[in-house]
Every structure is written in structure tokens, then in C-alpha cells.
């Protein structure tokens, strides 16, 4: 994972998800020009929705959905996994040790993912 104005998240061998907050409408074309001859760019700007899970209960909520050890020793800041939560394909990465995680899902699964969050959080004790 490489962070800065442009974040790059490794999603598989030779495959990266590039993200930029508040990017101009032509940012994918600009990126393509910058990596010309080295890589291809496929604009998925409208395809993903990113959820941030942060605070003391973040790990507990996510751990109910992923079969990955999210302990900082096993999944430190910058770690990325492509996995599933509630049968929904996700890209999950640890942002920091607060703990904060980002989860990218295809936009078409937003309602289903939100329902999973609601059900999962309702089953946790209030101190989570």
C-alpha cells in the first residue's frame, strides 16, 4: 500500500487499486499518461464505495465477517486483503492502529453490506 495524494492498494499480483480523494474528473486519464508503457489504467471511479471502520469496536465488527486475523501483529498498518464479508467481495486494508480499516465494495452491493453492518453492530455489547 502506498499512501499520499494518490493511494495505491495492491489487490493481487500486478494489480493495484488507485484512489484519489477529491480528484478531478480526468484523473484516470492523467494517471494513464503518467504510467504509459508501464501499466494500463481502467477507470472504476463510480464502481466502488469505501467504508471506514474506526475506533475501539472496528476490529470486533469486521472480525465477525472476515476469516482473517486482524490483530496488528498479523495484519499491520498498510496490510491489504481481498476477501469476502457476508458473501460480498471486498478489499480490506488497515489504515492505522487506532484501529482504522477501510473496506471497498462494489457500489451495487452497498445496501446488502449496510444491512450486514446493522445486524452485526446490533449483536455487539454497548462498549464495543
Separation of the first and last Cα atoms:
28 Å
Number of strands: 6
Task: Please state roughly what percent of the residues sit in beta strands, choosing from under 5%, 5-15%, 15-25%, 25-35%, 35-45% or over 45%.
Answer: 25-35%
Helix count equals 3
SS-based structural class? alpha+beta
> How do the helices and strands follow one another from N- to C-terminus?
EEHEHEEEH
The percent of residues in helical segments reads 10-25%
Q: Widest sheet: strand order?
A: 3-6-5-4
- Characterize the overall form: globular
What is the residue-averaged pLDDT? 89
Radius of gyration: 16 Å
Biggest sheet character: 4 strands, antiparallel
Key features?
128 residues; alpha+beta; four-stranded antiparallel β-sheet; two-stranded antiparallel ribbon; globular
Please provide a written account of the structure.
The chain is an alpha+beta fold and 128 residues long. It contains three helices and six strands; from the N terminus they run ββαβαβββα. The protein has helices at 27-34, 58-63, 110-122, and strands at 7-12, 15-19, 48-54, 80-85, 88-96, 100-106. Strands 3-6-5-4 form a four-stranded antiparallel beta sheet.
Topology:
Layout: E1 7-12, E2 15-19, H1 27-34, E3 48-54, H2 58-63, E4 80-85, E5 88-96, E6 100-106, H3 110-122
Antiparallel strand pairs: 1-2, 3-6, 4-5, 5-6
How would you concisely characterize the structure shown here?
The protein has helices at residues 27-34, 58-63, 110-122, and strands at 7-12, 15-19, 48-54, 80-85, 88-96, 100-106. It is α+β, with helices and mostly antiparallel strands and 128 residues long. The two termini are 28 Å apart.
